[in-house]
Write a structure and sequence with these properties.
single chain; about 700 residues; 24-stranded antiparallel beta barrel; eight-stranded mixed sheet
């Protein structure tokens, strides 16, 4: 197996992309007005005097299924502000209100969402959204998918009526970031509004966007002029919490826990925020989703803790250089006590991004050390989706480690982006090959998408607060995809045949891993999809390793595989999907099947079940063995802010049964009441985690200044 054909293909294709420049749609424009009175926040938009006399924003265009065509249902949007808050109202007309889809899962519901680029840097923005029952969705985005874990203080009310549904948002200016302003100075913000009509899988935007992109492509947001936000003074919020818990490890007496701590948030400027945290606790965070490792390298788990997710875009560069889960979480997944920390994040001016973080963690066993973690991130936004930045991290323990890196992004035309970073680590003693770099080019047009990248990670590269799944490699990757618009033929929306290659070599030239993927992907107008693919995998194993207790000997392995998958539309009460993979596995055989089923009942109940079944037959084992991972999730919403969630997981590779039950009564931001029960039954030969625990946590936000 060789990568040379892919190299020859990717280089001219990428070169063509660098010179290509598309003709994107013209951006919508509007002007906002100061309101004579604040709206009554109840969802009655049409009869509220505050909105009378204002001209609504309309003329939404479809992103899908018929890109560029007028939306099938009329949407009216009103924007206004007072001295204290920004207000947005929407009337979502519906010719048949009985077909409105409502769910406590925002991805399966009719929704109204908007993105606000208050700095007009076309790089980062805030996102707010709701559904017909007034659920609150907020997040941050940096020209990519939004991070919905971010949260701030705001309110929304929604209601359904005979003409459809409507919603009113109230967002205090203290919850937003924007450039410093003089009294009565006007600002223009980048804004786009999106409406999802689930029954026909329709996505419609106020400012039009090409089909291959989304409203999170911020240089396509509409321009709204006339904002006069206040010159913020001292904005100080204090959020204390109290926690009581009981933990009972297997075979031991239970221990009681009483904890208290607090967070402080202070606006240094309207665009730069200071956060302090003391005795930080994340008992309310849902347990990690279990994964089964069928390879030789470490698995990646995403961050879920609110303190680290807020303003994460200020620190964003690459998980290789900074991954916040390295702070306060041990290598085995245990949460380590966090004494406290400080963070400064936001913008200095319109285009300079600042991120500083210092945290101190304690040890809860002899295997974990006390540590101080420091991260400094600086970046400068440049025109046309471009930027340049620096990151430095330090982990101070008995074995101090530092990481230094420089990164950049260059936007070329409308569809092409170049990315890259160069980094080095240091620790006590001389370390060789402690470098890493990565360069990547991407082109994404309505018809063609392709990319190519090259990376190196030295054997001595040990980032202080980063994630490294493997070291000592050179990697080449490339991808090409063609999109054919099916225009409703067989009720299809698009056909996307594509192919990709990824290969790893060590610095002696040994071919460690290679993966060719050739796929044919069909997307229907209603949101269903189907794909069939063939894979060719190469593995060069220098040293034996174990998969679910079975040994894979050293050697060279070349194995083809077939895989296929299907998903039903997201807007239906029942949703099903199935993925299967069969073929060679380290010169043996493997069969995997992953069905899932979900059910929703209006906005109250969502249930989901998934099963990952694997049957593996290796030459080194006498008989085939099975590995199963089963997950079941249930969520019941009493109101948009009061819910009960249950997550059950069973992993027979490690013989672990885990249950996580959470009752939450959210107030504003991430504050509120949480009652959490966790149980882990570890039946492996080394039961390190078996325990039962229950915790009750309450927090409240006080506006001090």
């Amino acid at each position: 197996m060789t990568n040379l054909p892919f190299v020859r293909l990717s280089l001219p294709v990428l070169a063509f992309g660098l010179s290509a420049h598309g003709d994107l749609a013209e951006r919508s424009t509007a002007r906002v007005a100061a309101l004579k009175q604040a709206p009554t926040l109840d969802g009655h938009v049409a009869t509220d005097p505050a909105w009378q006399g204002l001209t609504p924003l309309t003329n939404f265009k479809q992103l899908q299924p018929d890109n560029g065509q007028a939306a099938t249902q009329r949407t009216e949007v009103y924007i206004g502000f007072t001295a204290q808050a920004l207000y947005v109202a929407a009337i979502c007309h519906e010719e048949d209100p009985s077909k409105i889809v409502v769910s406590n899962d925002g991805f399966a519901s009719d929704t109204f969402t908007f993105v606000m680029d208050t700095f007009r840097n076309e790089q980062t923005a805030l996102v707010f959204g709701t559904n017909p029952v007034g659920a609150e969705y907020d997040g941050q985005t940096d020209n990519s998918f939004p991070d919905w874990n971010w949260s701030t203080v705001w309110e929304v009310r929604a209601r359904t009526h005979e003409g459809g549904w409507s919603a009113e948002f109230e967002i205090p200016f203290t919850s937003l970031r924007y450039p410093s302003t003089e009294p009565d100075e006007e600002q223009a913000w980048g804004i786009n509004f999106a409406r999802v009509i689930r029954r026909n899988n329709e996505f419609a935007y106020w400012s039009p966007v090409p089909k291959q992109l989304s409203m999170y492509r911020l240089d396509l947001a509409g321009i709204v002029e006339g904002f006069r936000p206040p010159r913020q003074g001292r904005n100080l919020k204090f959020m204390p919490y109290a926690l009581a818990g009981l933990t009972r490890p297997q075979g031991e007496d239970g221990s009681r826990e009483q904890e208290a701590g607090f967070d402080v948030k202070y606006s240094i400027t309207p665009s730069l925020t200071l956060d302090l945290t003391y005795n930080t606790d994340f008992a309310q965070v849902e347990s990690d989703r279990q994964q089964v490792n069928f390879g030789r390298f470490s698995l990646f788990f995403p961050e879920t803790r609110p303190f680290f997710l807020e303003n994460a875009a200020s620190f964003n560069v690459d998980a290789l250089l900074f991954h916040s889960r390295r702070i306060g979480i041990g290598d085995d997944g245990r949460r380590l006590p966090i004494h406290g920390g400080v963070r400064v994040s936001g913008k200095a001016g319109r285009a300079t991004n600042v991120g500083f973080l210092h945290m101190r963690t304690d040890a809860d066993s002899a295997s974990a050390e006390k540590a101080d973690f420091t991260v400094l991130r600086l970046s400068q936004d440049l025109p046309n989706r471009s930027s340049i930045g620096f990151i430095g991290t330090n982990r101070s323990t008995t074995d101090d480690r530092q990481t230094y890196g420089v990164d950049g992004r260059v936007g070329i035309g409308d569809y092409t982006t170049l990315n890259g970073h160069v980094a080095q680590t240091s620790k006590r003693g001389d370390v060789a090959d402690n470098h890493a770099f990565w360069f990547f080019g991407n082109y994404d047009s309505p018809t063609w998408a392709y990319n190519a990248g090259y990376a190196e990670v030295g054997a001595g590269f040990e980032p202080a607060v980063g994630f490294v799944s493997r070291r000592n490699y050179r990697r080449f990757q490339t991808f090409v995809q063609y999109t054919k618009q099916m225009e409703g033929k067989w009720n299809l929306s698009e056909w996307k045949p594509h192919a990709s290659y990824e290969g790893y070599w060590d610095f002696d030239g040994f071919y460690e891993s290679g993966f060719i993927h050739i796929d044919s992907w069909f997307l229907w107008r209603n949101g269903a999809d189907l794909w069939t693919a063939i894979d060719f995998a190469h593995e060069g194993v220098k040293e034996p390793f174990y998969v679910a207790g079975a040994m894979v000997p050293a050697g060279e392995y070349d194995n083809p595989k077939l895989n296929a998958g299907v998903n039903s539309p997201a807007g239906k009460p029942f949703r099903v999907g199935f993925f299967t993979n069969l073929g060679g596995y380290y010169n043996g055989k493997s069969i995997s099947a992953s069905p899932f089923l979900s059910y929703r009942k209006d906005e109250t109940l969502t249930a989901a079940f998934s099963w990952n079944y694997n049957r593996i037959d290796l030459p080194s084992t006498e008989e085939a063995f099975n590995v199963n991972l089963v997950q079941a999730r249930l969520e019941y919403s009493f109101t948009p802010k009061i819910s009960l969630q249950t997550l059950l997981q069973y992993n027979d590779a490690n013989h672990v049964l885990a249950a996580n039950v959470r009752f939450s009564w959210q107030r504003s931001g991430n504050s509120g009441l949480y009652v959490v029960y966790n149980e882990i039954d570890d039946r492996s030969d080394m039961p390190l985690r078996s325990r039962r625990e229950i915790a009750v946590k309450y927090s409240h936000i006080f506006d001090v200044l």
